[in-house]
Amino acid sequence: MKRVIFVCVENSNRSQMAEAFARMHGAGKVEAFSSGSRPSGRINPKAVEAMRELGYDLTTHHSKGLADFNGQEFDAAVTMGCGDECPLVIAKQRADWKIPDPRDMTPEQFREVRNLIESKVKELIEKL
Predict the structure, then answer these.
(1) Among the options 86, 99, 121, 125, which is catalytic?
(2) What is the DSSP string of 43-59?
(3) Which residue did the predictor score with more confidence, 86 or 75?
(4) Around Cβ 58, how many Cβ atoms within 10 Å?
(5) CATH number for 105
(6) Helical spans, DSSP H, in the chain
(7) Contact predicate 109/90, CB 8 Å
(8) Does residue 82 have an active-site annotation?
C-alpha cells in the first residue's frame, strides 16, 4: 500500500478533498492522509457540500496539523499550492500542485477546483 499525504495551510478544503479522492479512487492501493501547516480545526462547509454532491461524506474527516505525522514516511507528499515545503514530512517524492484556495469562491468555482483536484489525484494514483 502506497502512503500519500496532501498538505495545505488550514487543512479545511483542498487537502481534505484530495485525501477523500485518494480514498475513493485508490481504495486498496493507497493509504491517504491530509494535514495543514496551520490547521483551522474545522472542515469548510463548502468542501463538505462539494464532496457530498459526489457521494462522499467529508464530515467524517477532521482538520489535522503536520505534527501529527512527524517521523512518518510517505511515498508521496503533495502540497496544494500554499507555498509550504513541509520539511518535517519524510517523502520519497514531492509535488506542488499550485491549486488556488477555493475558500472564498462561488459554488461553481469551488466545484471547478474540486474537479481539478480529483483529476490530479487520479493521475497521481496511476503514477504510484
Answers:
(1) 86
(2) --HHHHHHHHTTT--GG
(3) 75
(4) 21
(5) 3.40.50.2300
(6) 14-25, 45-52, 107-127
(7) no
(8) yes
pLDDT at 20 over 70: yes
Residue 84 pLDDT > 70, yes or no?
A: no
Structural contact between residues 77 and 7, judged by C-beta atoms closer than 8 angstroms: yes
**CA-wise closest residue to 21 among 123, 121, 127:** 121
Annotated active-site residue in 9, 32, 51, 82: 82
Number of structural domains in the chain: 1
Residue 47 is a catalytic residue: no
Which position among 8, 20, 58, 113 bears the catalytic label?
A: 8
Distance CA 124, CA 51 (A): 19
| Domain membership of residue 96 as a residue range | 2-127
The reply to whether the predicted model has a pTM over 0.85 is yes
Residues of 23-49 as b/e, b for ≥16 C-beta within 10 angstroms? bbbbeeebebbbbbbebeeebbebbbe
φ/ψ (deg, to 5) at 27: -50, 125
Separation of alpha carbons 50 and 116, rounded Å? 13
